[in-house]
Structure formats: structure tokens, C-alpha cells
Amino acid sequence: MRMATFSVVLIAASLILAALEATLFEPRWILAVSVAAAVYGLLSPVVAARRLFFLASASPHAALFAVAVSILLSRATSVGTPYIWALLLGLAMMYGVGYAIHRGLDTDVATSLLVAATATGSVLAIYHILTRYPLEVDIWAYIIGDPLLVTWGELVPIAIVGLLAVLAIILTYREQLCLGIDPESVKISGINTALYDWVLYTALAIATIGMLRIVGFVLEHVLILLPVAVASNVTDSSTEAAAMSVGIALAASMTGIAISILLNASPSGTIGLLLLIIYLLSLAIKRRIG
Fold first, then answer.
1. How many C-beta atoms surround the C-beta of residue 288 within 10 A?
2. Which of 21, 108, 223, 287 is such that its CA lies 20 to 30 A from the CA of 101?
3. pLDDT number for residue 172
4. Secondary structure of the chain as H, E, C letters
């Protein structure tokens, strides 16, 4: 079976499984995990094509910092919601890194500065939250991640930003691949490459911040990086890699959420473990074939 066909079958089977699980469990749990899987499955190959693994790994740090500070800002000002504040802060930080890279600063250096600043800021903000609001704010939900705690009110904005991220990735996927393969030729052709850079930074920011409540700070690294790692082991085409990445993310997520509910285990941890197992299997297949 060609990998493209296998990817389509895998995605279809995952969606069928999701529909079945929605009848057996709470539908909002399944919807939340499905949205996150689709976003990360699509984002993963773009990150790989643009060689932004380090920035993608750093984005959850910015997301956690944005969420922690947003809780403090919403309480101090009584203006807006923590979710809106977090999105605004996250976008501002990602755009700041993007501007620094655009001005000539090395990508790894700019990302290192982002990690250093946000990791330090997160510790300070979280400590303040835990000592000031120990019974009112469950900051650990953002660190560990738990889709079972997501309410319908929280799911609506998560689904909206997830859809925006998916559309941004799909509509610019070909250009993002070209920029990753031969950026100089793309620039010479007269295409506004900065526009696609900002689209990617925006998608990365809203994906990591918007999905933080579902998958958590720790597992975001896994869900951004591993789907494309699996796909690259079993496919040669960029289009097939995107489809496989989405299929793997959906399959692991739908299977993982069901197992976690039945075994009373961490959903995010179970999904991450399944992705790791799938990656090791794909690596073994690649070495056997190659």
C-alpha cells in the first residue's frame, strides 16, 4: 500500500474512532484532543521544512510564560480574560523573535534568549500565583495538560484558534516548503518571504498557547516534533509526509485518550508515550528497509 493511501486510511480510521469515542465518553474531551492533534500534525512538517526545531521547542516556554503572566494581568486589571492576554503576549514574543531574526540575529541565538527570558519569567510568575492564589488557580493543569478538565466555554476559543492555525498552515504549505528547500530562489523570484515567516510565527504562537491547556507544557514538545519525525522515516514526499504526520498525530491521540480514560492515566502522557513507541517502530522499519 502506498504511503499516501495508508495516510488517508489512517486519518479516516482515526476520525471514525473519534466519532465512536464521542458516543462513549464526554464529547468535549474527544473534540479537544482532535483539534490539538490536527494542529500539531500539520505544524510539525512545516517546522521541519523550515528547520525551526529549536524555535518550535522553545515556543512552549513562551506559551507557559504567557499563560502565567496573563493570569496575573487579568486579576490585576480586571480587563479581558487570561486566554486573550496569553494570546496577545505570546504573539508579541514570537513576533519579537521573528523581528530579531529578520534583522540578522542568528535563529538559535534569538531562540536561546527567548528560552532564557521566558523560563526565568515563568518561574517568577508561577511562584507568585501559587503563593497568592493557591486554591483559585490550577497552574499545574497548564504544565501537565489535561483535556478532561477543558470546559465547553474553554473549548470554543481553543477550536477557533486551532482552525485559524490549520488554515494558515494549509494555505501557505507549498510556499513554506519552498522557503525551507531553497529560500534564496524564492526571494529572487520576488515573493514576499517575510509574509510567510510571519504566518508561520503566528501559527506557532497560537498553536502552542491555544493548545497548552489540552496537552500541557511538557507534551507540546513531543507533539510538535515527533509526528514529522515518524513521517520522515516512512515517506519520501513532502505531501505524503504532511498527510502521514496528521494521521500519526490523530491516531496516537485518539488511541491515547481512550487508553488513558480506561486506565485512569494521564491523557497527555499516554499520547506522548504512544508517539514515542510509534517513532521507535518507524525507525526500526526504516533501518530494515534501508
1. 7
2. 223
3. 92
4. CCHHHHHHHHHHHHHHHHHHHHHHCCHHHHHHHHHHHHHHHHHHHHHHHCCCHHHHHHHHHHHHHHHHHHHHHHHHHCCCCHHHHHHHHHHHHHHHHHHHHHCCCCHHHHHHHHHHHHHHHHHHHHHHHHHHCCCCCCCHHHHHCCHHHCCHHHHHHHHHHHHHHHHHHHHHHHHHHHHHHCHHHHHHCCCCHHHHHHHHHHHHHHHHHHCHHHHHHHHHHHHHHHHHHHHHHHCCCHHHHHHHHHHHHHHHHHHHHHHHHHHCCCHHHHHHHHHHHHHHHHHHHHHHHC
**Residue 180 near residue 188 (C-beta atoms within 8 A):** no
Beta carbons of 150 and 158 less than 8 angstroms apart? yes
- Cα distance between residue 133 and residue 272, in whole Å: 30
What is the per-residue pLDDT across 78-125, written as a single tens digit (0 to 9) for each? 777 788 888 899 999 999 999 998 888 998 899 999 999 999 999 999
Residue 134, pLDDT > 70, answer no
Asked whether 257 and 271 are in contact (CB, 8 A), the reply is: yes
pTM above 0.85, yes or no: yes
Q: pLDDT tier at 288 (50, 70, 90 boundaries)?
A: confident
Tens of pLDDT, residue by residue over 242-286, are 899 999 999 999 999 999 999 999 898 899 999 999 999 988 887
Cell of 138: 490550577
Q: CA 196 to CA 205: how far, in whole Å?
A: 14
Q: Which fold has domain 26-218?
A: ABC transporter involved in vitamin B12 uptake, BtuC (1.10.3470)
Cell (9 digits) for 47:
517546522
